[in-house]
Each structure stands twice: as structure tokens, then as C-alpha cells.
Write a structure and sequence with these properties.
23 strands; binds ligand TXE; 15 helices; Aldehyde Dehydrogenase, Chain A, domain 1; six-stranded mixed β-sheet; alpha/beta
């Protein structure tokens, strides 16, 4: 049975209590490793380590910080195969996806922000009355970095990179459901030669280790990615402490398809935006809206293509949909399919998962599911399902499409398919989403801001948005004699 350990003050440690949590392999349903069930005492140790490391690290020349971050990126690339297998086995995603996206993006995150801090620019204000003003951006201190289970190492490094590149220290709390790659990553942090306490990773329950971390008085910054409900709970818990907080939360993203779209590309891309990573990406387009004149043609073709997608062993190259992350999550997603039938919807796709080997019979699998006939106001079209389930709804006018697209509590991302350039600019501005992909999905430029409005969160991550979040801004105004 594999044991994951915490990384605290440069050492790999069990929880102080010695307590552990079971970690499941979603593709078989079996427990295959143990995770530290860390508590307040472990968090205190990590905060102390991060606090002690902060003066030295924030005082380290940028070039030296960057050299260590680049070394860590190289070590991720060297161990890419092991990390991809670990991620696939732990999260249930296909191995080819972990190899193509999750792990390369982890090292890319580190390199991107290492380059970014080498190229930051600041502004100075000068005036005729002998005053010059300039901006100081300073690191803040130990930062709480809380990451979810859908893209474990991808999102963990997306937070660690700008945090430490700007001279802060980090206490990370990965999801208890997918601890494995954070555990392997911890060993690479030591191998890269980071000073003890710069990066700390504490495993455990969100309600226990996570809650102790976000409410710790010596942790002035919180960067959180996860569910809207949990984000709201954390925001309430720390509101009186005036911490600097960033929340990247849930989504219920529209995928709006006009008749003048590139139909083949819209079909091909919509299959990915609907079901990639088992639909467990907050940016997935789970509500598809199709112009009436091509609605029947789109539905028929999309359902046929969906039924062709292979569901099965994440280690198999043929699998497009792997296992959902946990039994509880699978049951939650399946409950929404049942609810859809009660709300008047029709499930058009196959439902039974076939061809599973004996070893995978107890895995957390379901078929990608397409549902039509639902009203935009029903729960299935309002609530984040976070699985391989999409609805398709027709529209006749731009106004109707826009009203349905914006008619949810979320505002994270959207896709818009049309060849009418005026419509692109006219409609994008009116769509309530932090990111609008036009004739595409999930094109990611790491300089671009990522994040949502309404219940999808507060703040943006990416490029200068991350660098500004992890630093305090100060204006120095200097008068001088003429
Ligand atoms: O997320 P949680 P979960 C959505 C999706 C999913 C729902 C819940 O709808 O079904 O969120 O998923 C830690 N103090 N997304 O349960 O609970 C927790 O340990 C501090 C969208 O995984 O939000 C984990 O490390 N930390 C999302 C992290 O928060 C706490 C991706 C996320 O857990 C905590 C994942 C607390 N009190 C789920 N409680 C996206 N935006 O990509 C929990 N945590």
C-alpha cells in the first residue's frame, strides 16, 4: 500500500497524529494508497516553516529564484511518464490526456511564471511640479494554495508558480481525492534544491486541514479553486480577517452554436468541450444551445458521435472517457440524469457501459450522456453537474440564446460558434462569462486572465493577473526641488 507524505520544512513527513485516509483508484474502485489525515498541528508546522523561509526567499535575487523554478520544471519533464501514470490512476482520466495536457502544462506553468517575473515592467508617473511616482510590488508572505481533484498537478502548479516566483512561500492543500502527483511533486521540490519551507504541501480533509489552513492568522493570502459552495464557506470563514483571496469556482457554461458555424468543427470541438476529462473541467460547455434551423441535424450527429466514444480503462489508448473521480461523485452525476427524466427531459444516448474487464467492473464509469427537451430554468440546466452530461436546447434569435446563456448563477466561460464577425463582437460583450472562446474551446494563453463572475468566483489568474494577486502594490511619490 503506497503512502503519501506531507512536505513540510523540506522534509517528507507523516501526519503528527499518524492518522491516514484511504485513497481510491477510480478505475477499479479499490483502495491503493494512504494519505496523511493532517490536522491543525500539521498546518501549524507548515505555516511556521513557510514563515521562517519567507525572509530568505523573498530576499533571494529573482535570477536565483528563477533558476530553482526552471530546475523543478526540468525534473517534472524528466519524470513526465511516472507523473502521467500516477495522475491517470489517481483521478481516472485517460493516460493519453494526462500525458498530453496535465503534466506538460505543470512544467509549462512553472516556466511561464519564471519568465514572467524576469520581464515584469512597472509604471512611473512624472509631473511638471517636480514629482516622480513609481510602483513597488512586494511579496506578501506565506500563501494558502487550495487545489481541486479534476486537474490535480495542473492547477497546483498554476498556483505555486506565480506564488513563489514573486517571492512568497506556499502552503498547499491538494484535494484528498487526488493526492498522488502532489506527493511525487514534493520529492522533486526537494531534489530541485529549494530552501526548506518555501514550498510546503499538507494533505488531508478540506474541512480539517483545509479549514485550519485558510483560517490560520499567519497566512495572509488564499488562492482557491474548487466548488462554489466550498468557496462561499471559505469566504465567510475569513471575511473578518481581510485576507487577500482569489476564488476560481464552478461553472455551467453555455456552448452557443449558430447555423452559420463551421458545422464539422463545432461538432468535433463540442465533443471535447462536453466530455473531455469525463466532463470534470469547470470550463466544460455543459449547456449546448443550437439555432433552430440546424438543431435536428446537430442533435442527430452529436448523439451518434457521442455513442461512438469509448468509455473504459484510463490506461487504454482507446478510452476517451475514463472513470469519474469517486463513487460519490458518480452517484451525484447519475442522480442528475435521473432528475432530468423527472424534469421532462429525454436521454438520447446509450446508457450502459460495455466491455469493461473484470478488474474494472467496480470502477466509477458512466457513458457520456446527451439530454434534450428540458426548460432552461430546470435544475439540470441550472446546477453544475461536473460530469459527462450535456443538455441541448434550440433557439431562434440572438436575444433568446443570450437570455438562456446568461440565465444561470454562474459566469465562468462560454463558447460561441458563428462566422458572422459582427455577431462575434456584439454577442461576446453581452455574454456573462470571464472567457468567451469563439469557434474554439480551451485555447489557453497563459498571459490571458482566467476566472469568472457571479457564482464562478472572484479574481483572475494568468500572466500579470497572477503576479499582481501575489504581490502588494505600493505607490511611492517623490517630490524634488527644481
Ligand atoms: O470541491 P471542493 P470538490 C465543483 C464541482 C464539484 C464540486 C465539489 O461541482 O462537484 O465543486 O467538488 C478543499 N477549507 N468543482 O468536493 O469541496 C478540498 O479539500 C479549505 C469545480 O472536490 O470545493 C479540495 O482540496 N479547503 C472546481 C478543494 O478545497 C477546503 C474543480 C476543492 O474541494 C475546505 C473541482 C475548507 N473548508 C470541483 N473544504 C473547478 N472550479 O475547477 C474543502 N476544501
Amino acid at each position: 500500500m503506497e503512502q503519501i507524505r506531507n512536505l513540510i520544512g523540506g522534509e517528507m513527513l507523516a501526519s503528527l497524529s499518524g492518522e491516514t485516509l484511504d485513497n481510491f483508484n477510480p478505475s477499479t474502485g479499490a483502495v491503493y494508497s494512504k494519505v496523511p489525515d493532517s490536522g491543525e498541528a500539521d498546518i501549524d508546522r507548515a505555516v511556521q516553516a513557510a514563515t521562517s523561509a519567507f525572509p530568505g526567499w523573498s530576499g533571494t535575487p529573482v535570477n536565483d529564484r528563477v533558476a530553482l523554478i526552471m530546475k523543478l520544471a526540468d525534473l517534472i519533464d524528466e519524470r513526465a511518464e511516472d507523473l502521467a501514470v500516477a495522475e491517470s490512476r489517481d483521478q481516472g482520466k485517460p493516460l493519453w490526456l494526462a500525458k498530453a495536457v496535465d503534466i506538460p502544462r505543470a512544467s509549462a506553468n512553472l516556466r511561464f511564471f519564471a519568465h514572467a517575473v524576469m520581464n515584469t515592467k512597472s509604471v512611473a508617473f512624472t509631473d511638471v511640479n517636480n514629482v516622480v511616482e513609481y510602483i513597488n510590488r512586494s511579496p506578501i508572505g506565506p500563501c494558502a494554495l487550495i487545489s481541486p481533484w479534476n486537474l490535480p498537478l495542473y492547477i497546483l502548479t498554476w498556483k505555486i508558480a506565480p506564488c513563489i516566483a514573486t517571492g512568497n512561500t506556499a502552503i498547499c492543500k491538494p484535494s484528498e481525492m487526488t493526492p498522488m502527483t502532489a506527493g511525487l511533486f514534493s520529492e522533486l521540490v526537494i531534489e530541485a534544491g529549494f530552501p526548506p519551507g518555501v514550498i510546503n504541501i499538507v494533505h488531508g480533509l478540506g474541512s480539517k486541514a483545509g479549514q485550519a489552513l485558510v483560517t490560520h492568522p499567519d497566512v495572509p493570502v488564499i488562492s482557491f479553486t474548487g466548488g462554489t459552495k466550498t468557496g462561499g464557506h471559505i469566504a465567510e470563514s475569513v471575511a473578518h480577517m481581510f485576507k487577500k483571496t482569489s476564488f476560481e469556482l464552478g461553472g455551467k457554461n453555455p456552448n452557443i452554436i449558430f447555423a452559420d458555424c463551421d458545422f464539422e468543427k463545432a461538432i468535433r470541438t463540442s465533443l471535447r468541450s462536453s466530455f473531455l476529462n469525463q466532463g470534470e473541467i469547470c470550463l466544460c460547455g455543459s449547456r449546448i444551445f443550437v439555432e433552430q434551423s440546424i438543431y435536428d441535424k446537430f442533435v442527430e450527429r452529436f448523439v451518434a458521435e457521442t455513442d461512438q466514444l469509448v468509455v473504459g480503462d484510463p490506461m487504454s489508448k482507446k478510452s476517451f472517457v475514463g472513470a469519474l473521480v469517486s463513487r460519490d461523485h458518480l452517484d451525484k452525476v447519475l442522480s442528475y440524469v435521473e432528475l432530468a427524466k423527472k424534469e421532462g427531459g429525454t436521454v438520447l444516448t446509450k446508457t450502459g457501459v460495455e466491455g469493461l474487464s473484470e478488474a474494472h467492473k467496480l470502477g466509477f464509469y458512466m457513458r457520456p450522456t446527451v439530454i434534450t427537451g428540458l426548460s432552461p430554468e430546470c435544475r439540470v440546466q441550472q446546477e453544475e453537474i461536473f460530469g459527462p452530461v450535456v443538455t441541448i436546447t434550440p433557439f431562434t434569435t440572438e436575444e433568446e440564446a443570450l437570455t438562456m446563456a446568461n440565465g444561470v448563477q454562474y459566469g465562468l466561460s462560454a463558447s460561441l460558434w458563428t462566422s458572422d464577425n459582427s455577431r462575434v463582437h456584439r454577442l461576446s460583450k453581452k455574454i456573462q462569462a470571464g472567457t468567451v472562446w469563439v469557434n474554439s474551446w480551451m485555447y489557453r494563453n497563459l498571459r490571458a486572465p482566467l476566472g469568472g463572475m457571479k457564482s464562478s468566483g472572484i479574481g483572475r489568474e494568468g500572466g500579470d493577473y497572477s503576479l499582481n494577486f501575489f504581490t502588494e502594490t505600493q505607490n511611492v511619490s517623490v517630490s524634488y526641488s527644481s
